[in-house]
Amino acid sequence: MSSPIVLRAWQALTRIPLGKRVFTRAICFKAPYFGSIRPRFVELGPGHCVATVPKHRAITNHLGTIHAIALCNLAELAGGIMTEASVPPTHRWIPKGMTVEYLKKAGTDVRARAYFDRMPDFGDEGFELPAQIEIADRAGDAVFRGTITMWISPRKRG
């Protein structure tokens, strides 16, 4: 079974100087909304993704901290790209729901880690796959925790 195109792109680009930046820009070109948070992908593999976002004025709230919805955007981006890198080309995915907890004000740059508790078997039936996302501040303190329920189903053949 071949690996997903996004994972192959990551593996190829991270071998060249500035490859992670090129990868991030390509993702934000395909899904421009995510560019507003200025993400940077750090790690990517099946069932695992790490991305960072710098604290900047465009995503701060009236308290001067990173806005809750900017954290949700980072969670959706990390969880979605991880899922894209994990699901084989024979299947497709779409987010079905998201639950979040805001644990602490995000007053610094943040780092998201998305992961699956386990990698599933991709069979002939659709199923829910929860993507776990944890976001921490520069000190490593958790500021956000969430779960995005991904719906995974086989691509139609023919």
Question: Mind explaining what this structure looks like?
Answer:
This protein has 158 residues and is of the alpha+beta class. The protein has a single domain, classed as Thiol Ester Dehydrase, Chain A, CATH 3.10.129. It has 3 helices and 6 strands. Strands 1-2-4-5-6-3 form a 6-stranded antiparallel beta sheet. A hairpin with a 2-residue loop joins β1 (40-45) and β2. The radius of gyration is 16 Å and the shape is globular.
- Compute the CA-based radius of gyration: 16 Å
Q: How many distinct helices?
A: 3
Ranges where pLDDT stays below 50 over 5 or more residues in a row are none
Strand tally, please? Answer: 6
The tally of structural domains comes to 1
Portion of residues within helices: 25-40%
Mean pLDDT: 95
3D shape: globular
| Strand content bin | 25-35%
CATH superfamily: Hotdog Thioesterase
